[in-house]
Design brief:
heterodimer; A: about 110 residues; seven-stranded mixed sheet; four-stranded antiparallel sheet; 11 strands; globular; B: about 120 residues; mainly beta; six-stranded mixed sheet; about 55% strand
């Protein structure tokens, strides 16, 4: 089945630690996105990528980093600089860039130990 | 100007009733307006979307109404069912400027349909 796979489903971070969230898609989509979801705040865009080896900052990129070395993969690293990382992280992909439907994975819930 | 304001924050409806969720935007460059449905522990799933060249779009029990002059759009769920209980998000994106290709989401509405 085509879709987006996020792993792990739950992740715990210690103080001062970097953690990486995985996002893989087999939809052959060009565009990929990372969102952060907090209660009552909707989804906020962290980073996005229109094409392999290219990515742009979203609205809340501070404390996060990404890479896009392969079309199907768009991992997100939550660095120790992100002081409030506890949230539900969602990865999405879309066929193209201009107003195409975005398809979401089932998220990773990150918590602080 | 990038905001999309969604209301109400929560909504309780009886089975068989009509659920109505409203969104308003300021950015006139927005020209794509999707609605997403999210169940607990899952990612959002696209429900229905509209472009501003039409005032209404219907898919089954779900209808989007769009008012371009008022910069508002709404989701109507007819004959609401307990299985419709979820969080609903409106969103918008545009073809130009800083909104190009990027979805701006509303804050979400938690819908509860009582049997």
């Amino acid at each position: 089945d085509g879709g987006i796979t996020q792993s792990p489903k739950y992740l715990f971070r210690k103080e001062g630690q970097n953690v990486t969230l995985s996002c893989e898609q087999n939809l052959n989509h060009d565009a990929m996105y990372w969102y952060r979801q907090d209660p009552g705040q909707g989804l906020r865009l962290i980073y996005y990528s229109q094409i392999v080896n290219d990515f742009q900052k979203g609205d809340i990129a501070e404390g996060y980093s990404v890479s896009r070395e392969k079309k199907e993969s768009f991992p997100l690293t939550v660095t120790s600089a992100q002081k409030n990382p506890t949230a539900f992280y969602l990865c999405a992909s879309a066929q193209g860039w201009s107003n195409q439907p975005q398809h979401f994975g089932d998220g990773t819930r990150l918590s602080i130990l | 100007q990038q905001q999309v304001k969604q209301s109400p924050q929560s909504l309780i409806v009886q089975k068989g009733g009509i659920s109505i969720i409203n969104c308003a935007y300021e950015n006139t460059a927005f020209d794509y307006f999707p609605w997403y449905q999210q169940f607990p522990g899952k990612g959002p799933a696209l429900l229905i979307a509209i472009r501003p060249d039409v005032s209404e779009k219907k898919e089954g029990r779900f209808t989007i109404s769009f008012n371009k002059s008022a910069k508002q759009f709404s989701l109507h769920i007819m004959d609401s069912q307990p299985g419709d209980s979820a969080t609903y998000f409106c969103a918008a994106s545009g073809r130009g400027g800083t909104s190009y290709g990027k979805l701006t989401f509303g804050q979400g509405t938690i819908l509860t349909v009582h049997p």
